[in-house]
Amino acid sequence: MKLSLSVRVAEAACKTKLNIPFEELVHLAREMGYHAICMRASAGGLLTPRDELEKMRRIVEDEDLIVSMVTADSDVPLNNEQGPNSLQNIGPSLDVAEALGCDLIRVCLKTEEDIDHSRRAADLAGERGIRLAHQCHIETLFEQVDRSIEVLEQIGRKNFGLIYEPANLLMCDEPYGAEVLEKFKPWLMNVYVQNHRLDPEGPDVLGTWCQGPVRFHHIPIWDAGGVEFNQVIEGLQHINYDGYFTVHQAYAWLMGPREAAAESIRYLRSFGCFDR
């Protein structure tokens, strides 16, 4: 498996801008030993001029990295009602991915109507050699394991797949170990990791469709009491996953991006299964 660092580790709480310059974050990723950068619109996306995106690609490639995935607009990670809109006009997102030299785009589905839009978007993406993927995510059609598989089968496109993310499954009281990864294997295109510790008295709360409001603590991925990362790693090894494993934690509330990047890779490398 190859380690990717999401720009989210340096993202402001609003999810629409970075707290440090993009070039600094890319250099940090290379210094720490990551293989790729996971791009979000907070760094560069639909509102970024093409020449600026191409410049960002050169910054990444000059550090001998690649862009592992693109989230081209801020509505997707905000998971708001506008999140699925890009599926109805996927062309601009495809342009962003091409400018950044990336063949994978994260998208959002929230209604049954979005399934039809996903088929058409995937067909257009396929013409340009690009894949689309949806994260395991609360308040979407990919909130629970079985429903996620149903939707993937309904979409029925080889270039439409899944971003496995165990913390969101944990929030929904869903399993996320080897048995689940075996089910997800045919569609698995990326892995995101972040960490939450569930607590009925926790300071943070997010809504889910299947469990209602869920209270929790944001915690670093190396802290105990949240996602059991030994289960995650063992499950990925069980299915021989060899793609990108992306540090996706929102660290704005916890620590700066340098400490976050360094401690995350130190912890993950302790499992002994990541390329160097």
From TrEMBL:
GO molecular function: isomerase activity
Domain annotation Xylose isomerase-like TIM barrel: ranges: 27-270
InterPro entries: IolE/XylAMocC-like, Xyl_isomerase-like_sf, Xyl_isomerase-like_TIM-brl
Taxonomy, superkingdom: Bacteria
One Pfam family cited in the UniProt record for this chain: AP_endonuc_2
Name this protein carries in UniProt: Xylose isomerase-like TIM barrel
Organism in which the protein naturally occurs: Polystyrenella longa
Coiled coil region boundaries: none
Keywords: Isomerase
